[in-house]
Amino acid sequence: MNNYKINTKCVQAGYTPGNGEPRQIPIIQSTTFKYATSEDMGKLFDLEANGYFYSRLQNPTNDYVAAKLAELEGGTAAMLTSSGQAANFFALFNICEAGSHIVSSSSIYGGTFNLISVTMAKMGIDVTFVSPDCTEEELNAAFKENTRAVFGETIANPALTVLDIEKFAKAAHAHGVPLIVDNTFPTPVNCRPIEWGADIVTHSTTKYMDGHGAAVGGAIIDSGKFDWMAHADKFPGLCTPDESYHGITYAEKFGKEGAFITKATSQLMRDLGCIQSPQSAFILNLGLESLHVRMPRHVENGLAVAEFLEKQPQVNYVSYPGLKSSSYYDIAKKYMPNGGCGVVSFEIKGGREAAEKFMKELKLAAIETHVADARTCCLNPATSTHRQMSEEQLIAAGIPAGLIRISCGLEDKEDLIADLAQALRAI
Ligand SMILES: *Cc1c(COP(=O)(O)O)cnc(C)c1O
Q1: Residue 384 half-sphere exposure toward CB, CA atoms < 13 A
Q2: Cα–Cα distance measured from residue 177 to residue 102, given in angstroms and rounded to the nearest whole number
Q3: Is any ligand 1 atom within 6 A of the Cβ of residue 345?
Q4: What integer pLDDT is reported at residue 390 of this predicted model?
Q5: What value does the CA radius of gyration of the chain take, rounded to a whole number of Å?
Q6: Regions in the chain scoring below 70 on pLDDT
Q7: How far apart are the C-alpha atoms of 400 and 408, rounded to whole Å?
Q8: Which of 83, 187, 204 to mutate to test the pocket of ligand 1 (most atoms within 8 A of CB)?
């Protein structure tokens, strides 16, 4: 499907049924797969043949959907994970181990911040956080001899900072390591980080890709561009024989295009088992079929709500990269000419208390730990998703106590604005 436009790929990429086969992706609800001889199965275990043997590692339904995601992002291989958290953990842990170091944007999702700074620290993996707005000098200074990856979010959740992908890719490559970009918020409909130099792209498919608040999931897409062998000393897991797989060297056997995803599947999925269920993969694909139709509406509603909020006296400031007043306006236009997403953050005057009162008055926008749903929802991060962060960490991540994140759904924008207006009047 490589020659088709992204709108067509959203609908049809990944699965092409043969004569008389199901039109919709079949849900292969089976833990295991049958073989005629042990020899046949042995070839699968040795990675000598393609096929399935156990759904903890791989399932055909997932692979159809992953193939669509690879096409949407312009990558060579992809895999689905049980959640966005699992996707980011696998993407990093596939090339990091005890003694490794990560350079990460400080403006990232709270769950990922926790994963990297607390849980991965316990595994002996160190991190240096840098502002997404840092200078090239500051960025280069964050690297160490043991740095193995650079991480950032295209549009950060919930701070809505925009990553200068080219700047981060350039620094990563100058230090011989890949750039991993979490592209959850814009989705490949609005931004394709690989086209700007990213090497690995991750997603929480729970968000816009599913788009209906129906299934938790994640995905990793490999650009197939990073030359692991050229930096073999840094990536022994990919560039030296894997004794748990009969001495296979992934980067040799599967090349730049396949090594990363094959290793993540055959080692990390095998040992940790964070696979998406085929039922969820099916639901995800239903979401993908309309992603290109939904994203422009999310953007339209997000911009309308941001422009409305910006004019209200009860509001301190509004963060939305599509606003002309945003310091990210130019960079957002560069990476996302059609707009980014439907998530808007704003600080209400009066801090935590005013935020709570305002949110209680909303009728259409529901209070939810969620974003990127067809239905509008909102959240006060300081009292929910980011409550594990200290005051200093909150400020570094751009999240004051009165910050409200509103995820504009697919409703009529006039109804959304009227709902916000009545709630503002009530406080
Ligand atoms: C939600 C989210 C995650 C985590 O994804 P889950 O599917 O909830 O595990 C990671 N990154 C970003 C940008 C997110 O918005």
Answers
A1: 16
A2: 10
A3: no
A4: 73
A5: 22
A6: 391, 397-398
A7: 21
A8: 204
Strands 315-319 and 218-222: unpaired
Q: How far is the CA of 45 from the centre of ligand 1 (A)?
A: 32
Amino acid (one-letter) located at 401: A
Strand partners, 407: 343, 377
Cβ(148)–Cβ(96) below 8 Å:
yes
Q: Please report the pLDDT score of residue 241 as a whole number.
A: 95
- The share of the chain scoring above pLDDT 90, in percent, equals 86
Question: Which residue's CA lies nearest to atom 5 of ligand 1?
Answer: 84
CA–CA dist 48, 137 (Å, integer):
46
Q: Are 374 and 213 in contact (CB under 8 A)?
A: yes
Whole-number pLDDT of residue 397: 67
Strands (E), 193-337: 200-204, 218-222, 315-319
Which tokens sit at 88? 């980011």
Sheet of 403-407: strands edge to edge? 315-319, 343-348, 403-407, 377-379, 366-367
Q: 167: phi > 0 → left, psi -120 to 50 → alpha, else beta; which?
A: alpha
Confidence (pLDDT) at 381: 80
How many other β-carbons are positioned within 10 Å of the β-carbon of residue 11?
Answer: 15
- Helix or strand holding residue 102 (H, E): strand 101-105
Q: How far apart are CA 255 and CA 161, in angstroms?
A: 35
Neighbours of 259 (CB within 10 A): 26
pLDDT tens figures, 373-388? 999 999 988 778 777 7
